[in-house]
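Q: Make up one entry.
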Amino acid sequence: MAKHLVQTRLNGEPVEFLCDPHATLLDALRNTLQRTGAKEGCASGDCGACSVLLDGRLVCACLVLAAEVEGCEVTSVEGVAQAAQLHPIQQKLLEHAALQCGVCTPGIVVAAKALLDRNPDPSEREVRYWLAGNLCRCTGYDKIIRAILDAAAELRG
C-alpha cells in the first residue's frame, strides 16, 4: 500500500509527513509527528480526548484521515500556549484545580479555545453544551466550567 505525502501546517508551522491511506490524524500526530498531547480515549469520536482544530473547526482527530489534512491548518493542544506562556484557559484550569488524571485535558483545552474564539462571552449553559462531547471520568465538570468562564472573563479584559 502506497504512503501519502501530506503537506500541512501544524500549530502555525509547515510540516510534511508520510502516512498510510487508512491512518488517522491522531495516528499521524502521535506516532509520526511526535505530538502526543491529543489522547486516544475511544477511537470512535465519543470522548473528545483527541480534539483538535482543523481550519478553525473543532474535530476529533480519531475520525479524520491524516491524508485529509493536506493544505489545512491543524491546531493541537501543543499549539494553544504561546512559547512558555500558558493560554488563559490552561492557566485557569490549573488555578481552579479543574484537572485530575489528564486524559481529557487536551481535548477540553482545545474545545474551550474553539468556543472562546467563537464566543468570548459564553453563558454557563453554552460552555456546558460546547463541552458535551468531552468526557471526563474524574471530575464533576463544575471546576472545569468555572475555569473556562473565568478564562473568558480574563480574555475579555
Q: What stands out?
A: The chain has a mean pLDDT of 96. The chain has two domains: 4-79, 88-156. DSSP finds five helices and five strands in the chain.
